[in-house]
Amino acid sequence: MEEYLMGVVAAEMNPNWPQEALAAQTIIARSFTLQKIAEDGGVPARCSRVN
Fold first, then answer.
1. Distance between CA 50 and CA 4 in Å, rounded?
2. CA-closest candidate to residue 10, choices 26, 28, 34, 27
3. Which pLDDT score, from 0 to 100, does residue 46 have?
4. How far apart are CA 44 and CA 37, in angstroms?
5. Which candidate, 14, 47, 12, 42, places its Cα nearest to that of 27?
6. What confidence tens digit (pLDDT) does each residue in 1-51 have?
7. How far apart are the C-alpha atoms of 22 and 20, rounded to whole Å?
8. Fewest CB atoms less than 10 Å from the CB: which of 12, 18, 23, 28?
9. DSSP letters along 1-51, please?
């Protein structure tokens, strides 16, 4: 979970933003993910499509 959250936050936010903003986004991402796991069994995977 921690590795997943690091990737999510890194993709969504600028690493130069205040530490408090990054921490808040991590909490939101964790809450969202845990809710999706409880309701749907997980978060749908994103995959790259190669043409």
1. 23
2. 26
3. 59
4. 10
5. 12
6. 899 999 999 999 999 999 999 999 999 999 999 998 898 877 766 555 444
7. 5
8. 18
9. -HHHHHHHHHHHS-TTS-HHHHHHHHHHHHHHHHHHHHHHSSPPPP-----
Q: Which two tokens stand for residue 37?
A: 């796991």
Distance CA 7, CA 4 (A): 5
Q: Is 48 left (phi over 0), alpha (psi -120 to 50) or beta?
A: beta
CB 30 within 8 Å of CB 1 = yes
Residues 25 and 12 sit within 8 Å (Cβ to Cβ): yes
Other beta carbons within 10 Å of 36: 13
Rounded CA separation 26/33 (Å): 10
